[in-house]
Amino acid sequence: MPTLRHHKHTHRAVVTIEGRDVYLGRWGSPNAEREYHRVLAEYLSTGRVPQPGSSYHTTNGRSGLTVSKLIADFRVYASRTMNANTIKGSIDPAMRRLDRTYGHVVVTDFEPPALRTLQQSMLRETSRGGRTLSRNYVNRLTSRIKGLFKWGVAEGLVPAGLPPQF
Predict the structure, then answer these.
(1) Secondary structure E strands in 80-127
(2) Using an 8 Å Cβ cutoff, are 61 and 48 in contact?
(3) Is the pTM higher than 0.70?
């Protein structure tokens, strides 16, 4: 398993996958740790090494709405318009998993491979009873995540054309 290392010259976190260095942000930052887990999850689910320049951009040095902010706005909307059982049963679990993995990502950089990676990680996740989540439940959570981005487009928070062919 590729390990997270300190690139001393630039003081950045780096992981080498298939001979390619992927820089993850400032060494020791929580963001670098999140990026490390995201890059590994994406590599394990797609089998591809993130190409330089195509990895997800964080808010470091970039402006734009993050996935976390979009989720926060959506939760306000959901609390006014949706049933409390729906929110508790599928909205909150889906948004919590999305925020934990991709909350720091700029919305325009969240693409279909990221959704596929998140879906695969949910399929490997175990419930409190030690069983894996059912495909039906994971598909319901994935549908809620797609709905989040569609809502964002309708509200003008996410540029039209996103989500790109989810």
Answers:
(1) none
(2) no
(3) no
